[in-house]
Write a structure and sequence with these properties.
Radius of gyration: 21 Å
Structural class: mainly alpha
Shape: globular
Length: 412
């Protein structure tokens, strides 16, 4: 059956993923989609058929981002029903998230540089009326650009966008509307349920031509029209003669930070569950003496976080923490110390926090914890430990290493 006929058939169907922020809902979506990770995904993944039709994409990213379900679970389910060769394209997509995280771990200065740039652009918008008006029109979906306005409203209204739509949107934002890329990346990070510092920041840099220097992604009418099944065709509205953006900072590659393993946990401990790994307890040798959850959603941005993104993160951590206390601000130190004192504990165990808000909050808290004689242990998963070393250059190096990673994980 030809791809065009398959797409025409899919377009007549309706499938809205159940984005309930629970592990059970994530596992259900995985089970529902696993048999589609082969030929259907390979041929049809680039089509954005609209928010009510997600048969051709997994839509698993909100659960994976918070590790309500894990990359290893997704790969295991996929490779149970398809060979690696048949599901190679989908497997690559799973590893793109690992690639972005690993690359940012190797180049950690990119994140604070983005944050500093964002603050400058927010201040510029406060002073520049034209910039402020254009920015407001873009995030409200009132630019008059076919497709772009729909995606802006879909993002705010659903907390999700098809990956191809994210690329088109970012390109139009940067090269047609000529808005600062940092404000666009922030708009995504504030509203996406799967808002992830690494994937989001580096994807926007890639579209701008900063990440892969001098090679921007250009949104074209023909591509948008084809892969939205003619739903959108912004004729004569897009700038395609673009100049890539550049930066003056050289973000030198660094060695991966050291991290602990579960073998180091021998006594009683307080388990700290964060947005970066909500299932870390499954990797630990014995249950915790006490547990506490901590949200970092508001630390994604100095601007207000979207309700849907905030609700998903909040619901997810409550599902993972099963009724225990959840810290809802971005200063965790006092609550952690108080809980340790209450249970007479001197060790806090949490999932490894890659570059981003959780890592920043933990770095701020650690000196005070040490003063109280409390040891903070961050457990890095085997998946990250074996995948991240392949994320030093472009994705091609990661792609070449995927069979080795799968073999190490026992998934070959």
């Amino acid at each position: 059956m030809k791809t065009k006929a398959i797409i025409a058939d899919l377009s007549q169907q309706s499938e809205v993923p159940d984005f309930t922020p629970t592990r059970a809902a994530g596992l259900a979506r995985l089970a529902q989609f696993a048999d589609r990770t082969g030929d259907l995904y390979d041929r049809c993944r680039n089509y954005d058929l609209g928010p009510s039709q997600r048969t051709n994409v997994s839509a698993l990213s909100p659960w994976i981002r918070h590790r309500l379900i894990t990359e290893t679970e997704v790969l295991t389910a996929t490779l149970k029903v398809h060979s690696f060769k048949k599901a190679e394209r989908f497997t690559h997509e799973v590893f793109w998230r690992a690639y972005f995280k690993g690359w940012l771990e190797h180049h950690p200065t990119v994140w604070p540089a983005y944050q500093a740039g964002l603050l400058r652009q927010i201040k510029s918008a406060d002073k520049d009326r034209r910039l402020a008006a254009n920015y407001a029109a873009a995030i409200a979906g009132e630019t008059g650009i076919d497709g772009f306005d729909d995606w802006a409203k879909e993002l705010v209204g659903t907390g999700y966008l098809h990956n191809h739509a994210r690329m088109w949107f970012a390109s139009i934002w940067i090269f047609t509307l000529r808005l600062p890329w940092e404000l666009g990346a922030d708009f995504f990070l504030r509203h996406l349920m799967d808002g992830d510092p690494a994937s989001n920041t580096l994807a926007w840099r890639w579209v701008a031509g900063i990440q892969t220097k001098g090679r921007p992604y250009v949104a074209r009418v023909s591509n948008i029209s084809k892969f939205t099944e003619q739903r959108f065709a912004p004729l004569h509205q897009l700038n395609t003669k673009v100049e890539p953006l550049s930066e003056t900072t050289d973000h030198r590659r660094q060695l991966l930070p050291n991290a602990s393993t579960s073998a180091e946990i021998t006594g009683d401990y307080l388990l700290l569950v964060t947005e970066d790994d909500m299932q870390v307890q499954a990797t630990l040798p014995h249950p915790p003496a006490a547990k506490i959850g901590a949200l970092s959603t508001i630390s994604r941005s100095p601007l207000p976080i979207g309700n849907i993104a905030q609700t998903f993160a909040s619901g997810a951590i409550r599902d993972a923490c099963a009724g225990v206390q959840v810290i809802e601000n971005d200063t965790w130190t006092e609550d952690i110390i108080t809980t340790c004192q209450k249970h007479n504990l001197k060790t806090v165990v949490t999932g490894y926090a890659p570059v981003g808000p959780v890592a920043m909050i933990l770095a701020d808290a650690e000196p005070a914890l040490q003063t109280e004689g409390i040891n903070l242990i961050q457990i890095r998963r085997v998946f990250d430990t074996v995948a991240w070393p392949h994320a030093t250059k472009g994705f091609f190096a990661m792609k070449k290493g995927i069979p080795v990673v799968l073999d190490t994980l026992g998934l070959a």
